[in-house]
């Protein structure tokens, strides 16, 4: 990374995602990013390609704040719009994205190049721990709402909120 023609060390990372819901894979990447950077901003984004989120932006932000409370250098927020613009607004040095498989890299590479083109900020890819390589928010939601046990796949604060939401859905049917 270079600023004003000089090499610098990245100190502020942004880790964007929809986190609907946050999984242990997400938390693993957040924790490892927190070991690498002085500050990590976890940013819940509105992804127009993902229809009908299970949780509102505020719910996802609240879950992530609970899940990362043990990480003093991590802050959680949300935003709408282009990541490249938000990266500039908060003066992040690097974008961090978690990858589970080669297919994730293939879909993330063009986004990373576009973000660099728009913001001048590079994307660092962190591989998820292999025990989470099959875990996605979509799969977790499907298994959960079909009655499966996802306790080993999501942080406890997220599971609590998911369970409350499911209980409310059962009461309204």
Structure description:
The chain has 173 residues and is an alpha/beta fold. The protein has one domain: HUPs (Rossmann fold, 3-Layer(aba) Sandwich). It is built from 6 helices and 7 strands. The chain has a 5-stranded parallel sheet with strand order 5-4-3-6-7, sandwiched between helices. Helix 4 (102-119) links the parallel strand 6 and strand 7 (122-127). The longest helix is centred in the middle third of the chain and has 18 residues, at 102-119. It is globular. The model has no long low-confidence stretch (mean pLDDT 89).
Reconstruct the topology from this structure.
Blueprint: E1 2-3, E2 6-7, E3 12-17, H1 24-36, E4 39-45, H2 57-67, E5 74-79, H3 83-90, E6 94-99, H4 102-119, E7 122-127, H5 137-145, H6 156-172
Parallel strand pairs: 3-4, 3-6, 4-5, 6-7
Antiparallel strand pairs: 1-2
